[in-house]
Here is the input.
Amino acid sequence: MTAYDVIVIGGGPAGLAAAVSAYGEGAKVLLIEREAKLGGILKQCVHDGFGLIEFKEKLTGPEYAGRFIEQAAATGVETRLLTFVTKIEKIADGFVISLVDRSGVSSVAAKSIVLATGCRERTARQVFIGGTRPAGIFTAGTTQHFVNLRGKMPVKKCVILGSGDIGLIMARRLSLEGATVEGVYEVKSTPSGLTRNIHQCLYDFNIPLHLSTTVTRCFGNDRLTAVEVAAVDEKMRPIKGTERIIECDALILSVGLIPENELAESIDVALDNRTRGPICDQNCMTSVPGVFSAGNALHVHDLVDYVSDCSRIAGKSAARFAKTQSKPERKLTQAAFDKNFLYVVPQTVDLNSDLSAVSVYFRSGYDMKARFVVRVNGKEVFSKRYSVLKPPEMEKVVLNLAEALKDGGKPEFALEDVTKLG
Amino acid sequence: MKEFVCIVCPNSCKLTVDDDLKITGAKCKRGDDFAVKEMTSPVRSVTSTVRTVFAEMPLLPVKTASEVPKNKIFDVMRALAGVTVDKPLKTGDVVLTDVAGTGVNVVSTSSVIIDG
Here is the structure.
């Protein structure tokens, strides 16, 4: 059985960045990918807008992935493609990972693991829509896979439910390829996707966005023939009398992403019910020592640039963990955050580890003008003003908490809503 | 007065151009440039795919090397529909020159990787 310092599971942007940075710390690294090519979901994201932070230029998904694939190829990171992880077992000084590939089943060992398994789309089964269950109801990502990787058009005239970014991007993509997008329907009163995507993907193509409106029923036997939409009240209940029937051959869902953590759960990694990813510390280490989480498996990001950024922390930390013989005891303290946040990552900090550059990622619970404040033992140690915070747009700050936490205590995060103060 | 949302970066700045053509709301200079272009001759990058003869990679992702006039977007798409790539290309290689008379080239955004 081949032994590695670090094994990275998942060859998308998170896994690539983690593998490269782990290798940079002198670790022997294996990167495992279940598909035939590296790059993850970026392979099918042929649109541009990636890399403005990471590379200071506007790249398409394949170009962004290509740069990291080149970086990985220039290192001694070993890669196994078309390889699927079936099991992870904890042993005395690390982990044994069971694999299946075209040659059969095998095992490899690692001192630490980075879980870079990405996220999955919420499906039709996970949102409540009445009516029949014909063909023609699929997620935006599935549509993107068909159109951009296989060259198949699964749609002539469609309705999009949900205003997530992939749905908006696909509204434009399908319009360019000659399909009719009747409209985008969002049950919430505010859009989920980035404002610029509402403009460049919908308004540029005269596609209407209907807020506080949802799909209530599907029609059709073999193939979808129509959907019923209705306006909803403030409790998201359909309002009687507002129903409208729209003829279409497809209903495309862009109703949210969920971190993929089946492997993490199999080894008892504790999850956060807000992010639905692992609870981690400032080094991206989960509740299980030696298991690290990176990218969209940790929490769903809106920009790949931040995925790369946080995955480098995970990769570097995993390498250092693997290379340290006598591991210092972790001294975890739970961070506190108020109800104005949707979530804050990391959820814990390890007081026995470096605290001089703690990357904190957060989302607000609703649209607000705010002051972001960090206190330790009641004393303010950091603050930053934001003219606008929106749940779809993640924010990042890097904090030096070394001095503030040198005698213990816990960081307390607050979002003071100053919208009314003007 | 006219309002735009800047699409240059994810900040999505809300831009206002007043009657004296004064631009406000941009967090950086690229926003001012965007507003001027939107007022005079709006342009967009086009990203899409073209067919290939390779079974492992039936489509190659492509983009316009720079922006093209907004009203030429569908002309660009029609031109791309007629392209079939029959040799391995690398990221940045030209797929089509002077697409739809815009003077802009269409380039590959991926390498055609064929594994034996």
In short: The mean pLDDT of chain A is 95. The interface with chain B takes residues 36-37, 43, 46-49, 52, 58-63, 66, 147-151, 176-177, 194-196, 198-200, 204, 302-303, 393 of chain A (CB under 8 Å). Chain A has three domains: 1-121+257-327, 123-255, 330-422.
